[in-house]
Amino acid sequence: MISQPTDAAEQLVRSLVIDASIFQTNMKYAEALQYYQKALELRPESASLRYLYAKCYLSYAFQTPYRSDFLQSAKKHFHQAYLVDSSNIELLDTYGRLVLDPQIPSLFSPEEALPIFLRLSSLSNDPTHLHSVAVCYESLKQVDKAIELYTDIYEKTENDDYLIIITKLLYDQQQDKAQRYVKNILSKDLEEQSIRELADLVIFKKDTLTYSTIVEKLYNANPNNIDYLNAHFQACMDTRQYQKLLPLVNMLGSKDAIASYEQYVFALNGHLYRDSLRLNEAGISELLEAQYKLFPENIQVNFYAANLAKKAKLQDLETRYFTRLNTIADTSKDLANELVVQLLQDGKFDETIEKSTYYFSRYPKEWVFLFLKGLALQNKSNFEEAVEIFRSAIGLNENNIYLWVNLGLCANRLGKMELSDSAYEKALEIDPTMPLALNNYAYSLVERNLELQKALKMSKSAIEMEPENASYLDTYGWILFQLGNIEEAIVYLEKSVATNQASAIVYEHLGDAYAASGNKTKAKEAYMKALEMDPKLTSTKERLEK
């Protein structure tokens, strides 16, 4: 405050300040600054006058389009006033906040702000001043001092926000310290919002185990909150705490608020599939047992749980699940299809034939069971019967390209070339761009040295669509070889080998190409590799003997 005037000069100063205040109140800062400046010329030693002058500059800086020069002037005069009077709490607070505002980078200076707020803290019990001191320490990387001060403020205010701040600093310092701290503060009676903020912070720091503990606390406090259930369920999966998932799975059916609790089990089973290397861990068998009891009729749950039991080598559960599935499959053609496909993929061709025959008897219009049976017969090299099965399936679905392609393949193996060619022609009539049909037909032609230009064109189309397919590259290379284009043939045969998926016959073809080019050393190496992959390949043995 300005002291009472004792003479004419003091009277003038007071008058100037009053006029300046009026201008400032009306946001006429330029005029106000002029009056404050005249007053300062009369009383340059007055800290209070300089403080008012600085505040006017500050207001002017933000009233105009951002003026950094005005801010610099305000800071300069705040500092001069502070040097004269460091006991004015309002002055210290305004000055300190100005140089600790990260939104004003040109003025931001925690080094300058620290002594100001330390002084303020000695004059005032306002915890915000201590907070500003802690912010200074934090900005100056004096983390231990900042944590100590934030802790002190929390003890005085019991404001949970400080627990979040301390936790963040601890995570920035050392994660195990942060984890211990979180464990301690979770024992406190925190507000729900504070726990949520803590969870957000911890997951941001990628500490999934601690996050799991926090969301479990949230869920236990409010088990009817679907968001907390979702978070707890997901966290248990992410941290592989499968035993904690058991009570959740068991109670899902009683959750009236959940429209479809199967979604949780689908998510769980999908996770377990991705974590298949750890299916022997504690809790897995119990989870699958729970699903067995909770979902007696859900096809998808039973199907995936059965396969999980199989992967986990839980033989009793596997048997029970598949027994149940076989019963359900009697009234579900889709499940029956999946079960037969599973057998085929597992290489159980005799069981595939048996089951596909059985299910076709139950669903006589479903050509897919004949198709699966034909594939199993084909894999057993029973091509004669496979041809008849594929023909029967075509009678039910003559527009399925895969039936025609496999009919063409089996007929080819039997030497029934007219049937094979007509099957491939029909397949390409259905879809002229199917790579498998194009490749197989092309290979069939080149093996008979027929229509090589037609074969070349089809083969090229196949590799254009699947340029990394080892078989398709081999076909194209082999056609080039038969056409006498040896060097280009080698290029494509080498590409086939480079995929690491080439068969023994590809190496035999590559050996032939090397031999034709005069490179006997590489030819021998290729033939040896072919025999290494298939010791019974007599054609390769004959080539080596020559």
Average pLDDT metric = 91
Report the radius of gyration as a whole number of Å: 41 Å
Give the termini separation: 115 Å
Figure out the total of helices: 31
> By helix and strand content, what is the structural category?
mainly alpha
Q: Level of helix content?
A: over 70%
What proportion strand? under 5%
Strand tally is 0
Poorly predicted spans: 1-5
Shape: elongated
Major sheet description: none
Quick structural summary:
This protein has 546 residues and is mostly helical. It contains 31 helices and no strands.
Core attributes:
single chain, 546 residues, mainly alpha, 31 helices, elongated, disordered N terminus
